[in-house]
Amino acid sequence: MSNPIITQNNPLRELTDLARLLSVRGSERTVDDGAHWARILAHIKDGQINGTAPDLLKDARQFLATLNHNGHMHTAIYTDQPHRRYLLLDPVGRPTQEFPWGRQGKQAAQIVQLDQEAPRALHLALRAQRRHPKLTGRAIRAAQIIANGGIKYKNDHHIVTSQRANSLPYRVTCEDGQVKCTCKDWRNGHAGKTPGAPTIAGQIVCKHALAVEIYKQLQKEGTT
Ligand SMILES: [Zn+2]
Predict the structure, then answer these.
(1) What is the pTM of this model?
(2) Residue 160 domain-assigned?
(3) What Rg, from alpha-carbon coordinates, does the chain have?
(4) What proportions of the chain, in percent to the nearest 5, are helix, strand and coil?
(5) 167 CA to middle of ligand 1, Å?
(6) Residues 118-173: pLDDT tens digits?
(7) Which of 139, 166, 173, 206 could join 197 in a cystine, given CB atoms 3.0 to 4.6 angstroms apart?
(8) Ligand 1 centre from 209 Cα, in Å?
(9) What's the 184 CA to ligand 1 centre distance in angstroms?
């Protein structure tokens, strides 16, 4: 029988959970941050980390506190490639739910995560998706941008954080009733290329343009 007291006070166990979480959440900030914790996670699994666990645990807690200051999601979806599954991790890195491998399993994990982090944004995104199936994955990604605090209003336009680490943000403007974004998906849609953002009611709708739309709706409702 396992002893819960020993498990709770096991720094290596806690470090494993946190390294798993930070390998995902860190990579949302910079590629290097994510890679650092992924390496530590691999070293733990290889049995190379024992004596240094308490020091690394201190680092991990500190890094987590930094991340939590930035309005990002507190949970993470870990891609567990060796076991071909996705794990939803709670804010201290413990797996809370498991999802099957593949596109559908991953999307199911994303929906459960967004339902915890930004339920109203998810609701609006899924409604847009039902009404306009050609949005495909853009609706879920728009809700993720909002859940990560990725939209700021500046003068007469919105700045939308890129979902890629170390990438410049995009600018969403509205001129003469036409919404424009500076991303490639929007430009491709504008040029009529496939794949490119779809046109809905005369507007080219990339995930950033949709995220701004949902964000404005949330502000109107007072949800943000
Ligand atoms: Zn865009």
Answers:
(1) 0.89
(2) yes
(3) 20
(4) 55, 15, 30
(5) 13
(6) 999 999 999 999 999 999 999 999 999 999 999 999 989 999 999 887 789 999 99
(7) 206
(8) 6
(9) 7
